[in-house]
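Study this:
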Amino acid sequence: MDKKKKLKRAVALKYDVQRHDVPRITARGKGVTAENMIKRGEKEGVSIYEDERLVKKLIEYEVGTDIPPELYEIVAQVLVFVESVDENQVKAAKK
């Protein structure tokens, strides 16, 4: 029996510390929209972090919404991880 292919989901976050106190949802999508978001992010050099449980929660919120307080800690961990990946890529590019 074939396993069903899971519907791809994606949520984009932006954290502008000068304009907002917390990260904000800037895009969200399912299926082809999610796949296009991921492809565009990769093309533009945006760090991509996969966490199915987090996306499942965040996708419930509208674009332009601040992330909810109950997700502050996990999103902060994601942002720290992404920042370290970005820093490592910059260091590697300078070599």
In short: The chain has three helices and two strands. The chain has a mean pLDDT of 88. Residues 9-94 form a domain with the name from scop fold (CATH 3.40.1690.10).
